[in-house]
Amino acid sequence: MGRDMETRTIFEVADDSLQGVLGYHFYVMALHQSVDPNRIETYLPNTSRVARVDAFPHTFSWDRYYLRKDLILAFMPPFFELYQSRVSITAIASVFDDALTKFMGRLRSLGYPQQLNGRKLEDHSSYKERIEWAFYESKKCTVGDLKAIARLSKTFGIIDEVRLLRNLIMHNHGIFDKGYENGAIKSKDIERVVHPDYKKFKDTGKGVAIILNYADIINSSRAHIEVLHMLHNQIQKAFFNHPEPYDYEKENKIIMWNSVFWGDTELGNVREAITRDSYLKI
Q1: Is residue 78 in some structural domain?
Q2: Which of 68, 169, 175, 240 is placed for a possible disulfide with 44 were both Cys, Cβ 3.0 to 4.6 Å?
Q3: Torsion of Cα atoms, 116 then 120 then 126 then 132, to 10°
Q4: Does residue 189 form part of some domain?
Q5: In 172-213, which ranges are continuous DSSP H helix?
Q6: pLDDT value, residue 190
Q7: Would residue 69 count as lying in a domain?
Q8: pLDDT single digits (tens) 128-164
Q9: What mean pLDDT is predicted for residues 168-176?
């Protein structure tokens, strides 16, 4: 029996999007390392009419004063990588969360509502619950990368850690609080991953910022993409009787970066769209 095409599309969109996050991370890091900081100021916005003070558009009523040199200094090494890593980790979590939501929605639409601990999961279920569901569903997988299946407990520990970090980045300015520990998935089957700087917060009670580096982004991406493949394989086998694992070579699926970033769309009007005036006006 063939794959369910809608499920495959959910998988491929998420797979491409996660590769896109990683490709963008590679690109902007390389760009930052190769650029001359002295030339950046020329390309930053300045709408100020006041001498020696810069400004950028802030609301429809007024601009916000700033200094272009200060913005440049704020991103001097290593701080650009630290901030970009926060952006990338947030995007990884968002893509994966969306894929889990759509997988569950597809199964529900076909009469296969999913459960966690005997309770039916709905659209409003939390991302935390969806991760737990994905873990127990992935554990059933018997096709594909057997090494990946064996390390699921560790892989899902990384995935839950990314969820917790994303929450702190979005809701607490990227600073540790007690929710980091209290909000983790409590499961003896999932190995808890703890950021090495969390102990500083626990010991002092002072604000400690989340610091992520290049290796953290690589391993976060690996974990989410690996699980995405296993979960897709398991869904296709369990619900659609398709036992063949998804394989890039067999699918003749090379990385096409335009497709990764823009999907299956026409890009002929890109230049026109970039140069036109904004349509978002008041």
Answers
A1: yes
A2: 68
A3: 20
A4: yes
A5: 179-182, 198-204
A6: 98
A7: yes
A8: 999 999 999 999 999 999 999 999 999 999 999 999 9
A9: 97
d(CA 37, CA 44): 12
**Residue 26 reports pLDDT greater than 80:** yes
- Tokens 């509502």 sit on residue: 113
Name the nearest CA neighbour of 227 among 139, 168, 167, 162. Answer: 139
Identify whether the C-beta of residue 229 lies closer than 8 Å to the C-beta of residue 145. Answer: yes
* CA distance from start to end of the chain: 54
Phi-psi region of 61 (alpha: psi -120 to 50; beta: other; left: phi over 0): alpha
- Domain range enclosing 206: 5-261
pLDDT digits (tens, 9 = 90+) for 82-102: 999 999 999 999 999 999 999
As a whole number of angstroms, the distance between CA 130 and CA 142 comes to: 21
User: How many CA atoms are closer than 13 Å to the CA of 133, on its beta-carbon side?
Assistant: 23
Is 9 a domain residue? yes
Q: How many structural domains does the chain have? A: 1
| Whole-number average pLDDT of the chain | 94
Q: What is the sign of the dihedral through the CA atoms of 10, 159, 91 and 254?
A: negative
